[in-house]
Each structure stands twice: as structure tokens, then as C-alpha cells.
Amino acid sequence: MVVLLISSVYLFTHTGPLTPKRTTGAGFSFSSPYNYDGMAYYGNATYVECAEDELRYKSCSSLRICALEDTNGVDYLRSSFPNNFLRSVSSLEEAVAMLQDGTCNVIAADQSELLSLMVATSDNNNTYVVGSKTKT
Length: 136
Hints:
The structure is a single chain. The chain contains four helices and seven strands; from the N terminus they run E-E-E-H-E-H-E-H-E-H-E. The chain has helices at 45-52, 72-80, 92-100, 111-120, and strands at residues 2-6, 9-13, 39-43, 65-68, 86-89, 106-110, 129-130. The strands form two sheets. It has a five-stranded mixed β-sheet, with helices on both faces. The mean pLDDT is 80.
């Protein structure tokens, strides 16, 4: 091995073979991949716009957002909206049922989940939309 000092920078060179040595025999352990692309809103276009712009008055006063409990999204919503605008749900299926029965007019979830939901529940009327603004 040769060590040179050039202008206060050490340069190390090695001319022999590099042979990796196993030290513990244990490999890396990674969790399952989790893709998060940001929270978005799904529902009636007017109320999706209200939610994206965090409006709570006039035409947006009847905004009701369903969000999955114990998620970062619901934590964000609690910091942005009063409690009477939020409905906590335990599953996306429950949120869809509440959207359809009028309990909520917007669902907040990961954008990729909402896009999948829109495709799965699409109708010719295009009743619901996924918002274009994501919160990360």
C-alpha cells in the first residue's frame, strides 16, 4: 500500500488483489418495500378542491373527510381541519361505504390507493375524482 500526501489530502492506493472476507456470515435484513407517494383526496370534485385548499367555510362548510385511523394522513388532517370535518375509519372499504351513503364526501388516503379505487369503482358518470395536489 502506498500513502501519498498531496496538498493536505491523503491518497491511498492498493496494488494487491482485493479479497472480500466473510466476517459474521449474517447478511442484510430489509423490511418489505412500502411505496408512499403522498396523501391525496378522492370524492366529489367540489369537496376535493375544498380539502386540497383547506377551505372550511361557505360552499365548503359541509366538507366531511374520511381518513384511515392510525396513519400519517389522519395526523396531518387533524392539524389542518377541526374534528367535526373528519371521520376516522378502519379500512378503505369502510371509507367507500361512508362516501356512498353520504357520511363523507371526500376520502383521504395514499394517492396510489385512490387511483386504484377510482379504476375499480369507475362508472360512466365519473362521479368522483382524485385530487391533483398531494401532501407528503
